[in-house]
């Protein structure tokens, strides 16, 4: 039922500062920005290939996202899957006894949206969205290719996500990691022990069309990053708390 990863959301302290990195340095095109009063946030969507990055700034410390920021600091917050009919998908999950935050979809930045409870998704906050008609993919210098998730038991976690969202498993060499496809993107589930004991979303991987241009822009902006051969790893202090890999290669 899932067509693609619609977006991955990042909680930030100030949207303006987050634009400095994600829009101005990485060059992700700003598609939308809006106040979402019922969530107590200001949010923006930036294009990243067939996927988007959502930046969320809480307007008050007392809101749900405000409390999240106070507790965890800036960083990855939720993943949103594009489904053709969110009402049907939600009703189906409800019938199967899946714990939901939103019993019925509502209008959000990404279209008609609804959140599942993280308890139902191995600690990951998942949003489902059916985008409004007529939304075209805009060109972007980066494409989101991979969301890395830490799990105590990767196999169980990917079985759960397959059962809930019908994400096909991508064959990997035997090992403790598992991978699921969502459109052209993937979810890579790794043992929590490999990522400092973290359970939940831990990192994003992008591919860059113009890798050299991108690293030059990071240099000019004073971004902290580790240089590898054909890959850079941005230090979370420069990317609103997100571990971010950018590669020049297209990987499967
Ligand atoms: Co969202």
Question: Which key terms come to mind for this protein?
Answer:
252 residues; alpha+beta; 2,3-Dihydroxybiphenyl 1,2-Dioxygenase, domain 1; 2 domains; 8-stranded mixed sheet; 5 helices; globular; binds cobalt (II) ion
Protein architecture, described:
This protein has 2 domains: 4-130, 2,3-Dihydroxybiphenyl 1,2-Dioxygenase, domain 1; 142-248, 2,3-Dihydroxybiphenyl 1,2-Dioxygenase, domain 1, CATH 3.10.180. The chain contains 5 helices and 16 strands. The relative contact order is 0.17. The chain has helices spanning 15-25, 64-72, 86-95, 154-165, 211-220, and strands at residues 4-11, 30-36, 41-48, 51-58, 75-82, 106-108, 111-115, 126-130, 142-151, 169-170, 178-182, 185-191, 200-208, 225-227, 231-234, 243-247. The longest helix is centred in the middle third of the chain and has 12 residues, at 154-165. Strand 6 (106-108) and strand 7 (111-115) form a beta hairpin. The protein is of the alpha+beta class. The strands form 2 sheets. Strands 2-3-4-1-5-8-7-6 form an 8-stranded mixed β-sheet. An 8-stranded mixed β-sheet has the order 10-11-12-9-13-16-15-14. Cobalt (II) ion (CO) binds at residues 7, 9, 54, 78, 80, 110, 127.
């Amino acid at each position: 039922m899932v067509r693609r990863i619609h977006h991955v959301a990042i909680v930030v302290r100030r949207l303006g500062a987050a634009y400095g990195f994600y829009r101005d340095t990485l060059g992700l095109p700003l598609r939308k920005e809006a106040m979402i009063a019922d969530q107590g946030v200001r949010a923006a969507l930036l294009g990243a290939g067939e996927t988007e990055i959502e930046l969320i700034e809480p307007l008050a410390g007392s809101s749900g996202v405000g409390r999240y920021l106070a507790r965890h600091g800036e960083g990855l917050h939720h993943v949103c899957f594009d489904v053709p009919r969110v009402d049907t998908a939600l009703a189906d999950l409800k019938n199967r006894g899946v714990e939901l935050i939103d019993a019925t979809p509502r209008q959000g930045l990404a279209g008609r949206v609804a959140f599942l409870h993280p308890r139902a998704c191995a600690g990951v906050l998942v949003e489902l969205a059916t985008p409004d008609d007529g939304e075209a993919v805009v060109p972007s210098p980066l494409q989101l290719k991979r969301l890395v998730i830490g799990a105590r038991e990767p196999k169980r976690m990917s079985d759960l996500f397959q059962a809930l969202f019908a994400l096909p498993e991508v064959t990997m060499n035997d090992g403790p990691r598992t991978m699921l496809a969502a459109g052209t993107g993937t979810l890579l589930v790794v043992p929590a022990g490999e990522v400092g004991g973290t359970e939940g979303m831990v990192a994003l991987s992008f591919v860059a069309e113009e890798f050299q241009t991108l690293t030059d822009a990071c240099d000019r902006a004073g971004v902290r990053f580790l240089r590898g051969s054909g890959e850079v790893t941005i230090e979370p202090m420069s990317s609103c708390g997100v571990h971010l890999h950018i590669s020049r290669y297209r990987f499967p």
